[in-house]
């Protein structure tokens, strides 16, 4: 039997069963966003995530800076999803002999930028040549006094996400179908952009190149609509849960899509979930771009993937700074539409070694 | 400029300079066998090493079991080289859709076997599909109260290695040029084999397949000569330094060849080295096989690479259980032959993104 006939999740489950907790210093082993290892009065968190050319990224529309930025961000997102603080980074890079030195330099510019953003230090790694496509892997070590697993959700808890969903998947579609070339977003700062859009004075120094792009449009879409979507896909910023982490009962980061990651959280917590379609946060930009592309924004929000927003649960009586999308139930897993109709959902999202459904 | 024109070492040096120690909790950052991170009264060691198809391994003569075994061993070797105890393992695997499920199972059989050998637990990882060759990466976390760096060698220290050199490189040549197919060595146990060759009763259960192979010969070489060489290449066991670690002043594991790794140790310690050609340990099997292949055994021992023996220094007045091969000098770096003639040596060994010399 081939991997394509088994699928990633089933394979992971088998590996997980085979290597169950092997030592009492392992608080959480395989199967959550990061491992939790006992370490005196604090806990060590460790996670690893890879990005493979042709699978996770396409150099025909990704700059090396963006690649370095994203590789670190997706790992930070896993540490945040356990309620931890990211600290130490290791990188393993396999690149072929024809790679330009300037590519590596810009890749490390991106790594450097994003390390500063999260306060992470690079402490080691491995470099190898490759006879084929590029393969990048990062390991991130973090710390936490109290870790949040996927398994802590209780019936009656409210379900939250930290931001709009589907933007990244829509950004990817725009890149693949319309833009088809790398776009420099290096000067773009999400927080400053937001401050700007809420009327505050913008602080970021737009580069000349950026100013040029900002006058462009993609089909009928203005660059102001396109840019945040591309940014969310190419240079996602991980969400720090510090403002609500004390209330969180279970948490996961949305990497494979809301429905698949919510299903994982429910599986681990042995509960169900009810989410309200009109509460799913969909950005203005996603609505605009999805209409232009002729696709359903809500479909992208439910199962687009690579959102890197946090999905978590908290007791209903706590005041939580995040977007409420539903409630934890005993066992039913449903999406409720605006007229109150329920529709069952199951894990839908991206699986490596994809099984036909 | 392309990576092939720069070379791995020069690139590593640039990255190291750019990401110098960024926090006071980082005792050793980029540039040694593992990073050393302050952690209460003990230190955390972290290392990562990758194995890329077509570069580090060739599936036409490597079994998946051997691949899993070696991937963990080479990382354990890095932790041992810092004087530490290996504890937690993470794996990142990119394999294509056509990979057979049985391949993965056997790969994890090898991982399992070698984890037991070193007392290591698998705590996490990442699985991805790949559109091209296989790419494997492991991260290993260990602990030590006292870490041994490459930089501690002092003039007058003796230089030691933990076992014969060149066996792995010779094994690789036999596989590439003569055997050209995978050989099951899974039942082979180095320690038991040694006990056998010293007259003790063998304890290992030779499989039927193994018994069959043991009657074979490769060209004029008996299987008894061939097997330990293949084993050292395909399933290297890392050397635990516990018997001498308290005396070690500097240490490194020999992955790229004695001369290149000794040069690294000397560079970091700002010293020279004198090694005696007749003290370089060359096994009976290497002598036999090298003569059959028409190559110089000493050349393989000096720069063959992938030995995964430890190379270390200790004060001359200490009694050390290892093989003495030379002394640390002020600055000259020479090999002394049996008639006392000196020949300067420099880093020679395997470099990724290889530069022509």
Give a verbal description of the structure:
Two copies of one chain form a homodimer. In chain A, helix 4 links the parallel strand 4 (85-95) and strand 5. In chain A, helix 5 (167-179) packs across helix 8 (223-234). Chain A is an alpha+beta fold. The first copy, chain A, contains eleven helices and 15 strands. Helices cover 34% and strands 24% of the residues of chain A. Chain A is globular and about 55 Å long. The two termini of chain A are 17 Å apart. Chain A has a seven-stranded mixed β-sheet with strand order 10-12-7-13-11-14-15, sandwiched between helices. At the A-B interface, helix 1, helix 2, strand 2, strand 3 and strand 4 of A face helix 1, helix 2, strand 2, strand 3 and strand 4 of B.
**Topology as H/E string of chain A?**
HHEEEHEHEEEHHHEEHEHEHHEEEE
What fraction of residues of chain A sit in β-strands? 15-25%
Within the largest sheet of chain A, what's the order of strands?
10-12-7-13-11-14-15
- The multimeric state of the shown protein is homodimer
Distance between the termini of chain A: 17 Å
Q: Look at the structure and give the mean pLDDT of chain A.
A: 89
What is the alpha-carbon Rg of chain A in Å?
20 Å
Number of strands of chain A: 15
Percentage of residues assigned to helices of chain A: 25-40%
| Major sheet description of chain A | 7 strands, mixed
The helix-and-strand class of chain A reads: alpha+beta
Based on CA inertia axes, which overall geometry of chain A fits?
globular
Low-confidence stretches of chain A: 198-206
* Tally of separate helices of chain A: 11
The most extensive interface, with participating residues per chain, is: A-B, 71 and 71 residues
